[in-house]
Amino acid sequence: MLVFVNKGIYVKCRNSDKVKVSKGIVAAVRELGGRFLQLDERTRTYRDIGDKKAVDKTSQALREGLSKIRREVLCGGDADDDEKNDGSKPAFDASMME
Q: Of 50, 48, 52, nearest to 19 (Cα)?
């Protein structure tokens, strides 16, 4: 959810500020007790990937689908009409947090 909420900010940022957005998301997840894990195939246990790799993966997630978001944010919402929010759907769905 944090990635989705921050994509609009990410697309507007200068390249030098994009890593700050990613680091902020990682810090927020860590502050709430969250972890970034990867399965160790040899031991079949999960291990924390560390902040650098977590920031890299968060940046990758922020970049996914950016062309559509860029059109919506920078061009005033010229994205596909069927996916626009016409007010009939909430912009934020609390059930996504569960």
A: 52
